[in-house]
Each structure stands twice: as C-alpha cells, then as structure tokens.
C-alpha cells in the first residue's frame, strides 16, 4: 500500500487552521490569572485601622481594678510615668503590684522608697528620655485626703516632684 503524498503534507489553509487553534489555546491559558483586588484592599484597610489603634500619640494608663477615680472638668494629657495607686480598701500598688497597707507604708516607707529608687535606676534602660521625676497617682474617691497628702509627702522625699493626679475628665 502506498501513501498518497497529498495526504501527508498539509496545504496552507490547514496550516492556518492549526496555527489559529494553537494561538487560541495559548491565549486562553495565559488569561487564567486573575487578581482579587477587593480582598487585598479590605486587608490593607484592616491593617491601617489596627495600626492606628495600636500606636496612639498619647499613652494610656491602666486604672487599678476597684479604684474609682474622681471626676474633673480640667483634665490634662497623660504622660508616661510610673503609676502609684491607693485603693479604697487601704492598699497601695506600684505599677499594678502590691506594695502593702497604706497605714504601714506611711509609718515605714522604706519598702516603697526602695521600689521607687529601683524604678528610677531602671528608667534609662527601658526609655529613651531621662527620668524626669514624674509619677501618676491614682487615688480612689473614698480615700481620705490626709492619706493622699501623706503618700505625696513620701513621693517628694524620693525625688518624685511632678505628681500627676489621675482623674476622669467630663
């Protein structure tokens, strides 16, 4: 059996159809990639909101649980400083850690002074600015003013001259 030469070789029109089919399939494969911009924009907007909430320009201090701060009509901006809290049950806390009973601390302030001096020494390692002598004082509404003034006297003897009283602004 002999093969016909005309069947083996394709004419120009058949070559054109084959090339057209190849180009058609090649183009279909290359356009299969789609970029979902809506999801990416949503993700970036959530990232921006998270960063704005995380990096606020003014520091915030934690109010000790069980301490009801007094109200004020002239609040000021909170500065970053150690926090000393006087609870209504008579206990004194320094940076959320119990120091002792307020009556005992006012009689023998050695433990509080030791902790305050340790904060002053460690301030330069954890902060870029030098220690300025500031402290935030949180006192419950029901704590007597004489108790607050005695604690403030202890603070001034330990070179904490800038005492900021924590209040709730209206």
Shape descriptor: rod-shaped
Neighbour order of strands in the largest sheet: 4-3-2-5-6
Based on helices, strands and strand pairing, what is the structural class?
alpha/beta
Count, helices: 6
Compute the separation of the termini in Å: 106 Å
- Estimated radius of gyration: 36 Å
Count of spatially separate domains? 2
Would you summarize the structure shown here?
The chain is of the alpha/beta class. The protein has helices at 5-8, 12-30, 37-54, 102-107, 110-126, 145-157; strands spanning 71-72, 83-86, 91-94, 97-101, 134-139, 162-165, 168-169.
Q: What report would you give on this structure?
A:
Helices cover 45% and strands 16% of the residues. The protein has helices spanning 5-8, 12-30, 37-54, 102-107, 110-126, 145-157; strands at residues 71-72, 83-86, 91-94, 97-101, 134-139, 162-165, 168-169. The strands form 2 sheets. It has a 5-stranded mixed sheet. A two-stranded parallel sheet has the order 1-7. β5 (134-139), α6 and β6 form a beta-alpha-beta unit. The model has no long low-confidence stretch (mean pLDDT 78).
Jot down its keywords:
170 residues; alpha/beta; 2 domains; five-stranded mixed sheet; two-stranded parallel ribbon; 6 helices; 7 strands; 16% strand
Fold topology:
Blueprint lengths: L4 H4 L3 H19 L6 H18 L16 E2 L10 E4 L4 E4 L2 E5 H6 L2 H17 L7 E6 L5 H13 L4 E4 L2 E2 L1
Parallel strand pairs: 1-7, 2-5, 5-6
Antiparallel strand pairs: 2-3, 3-4
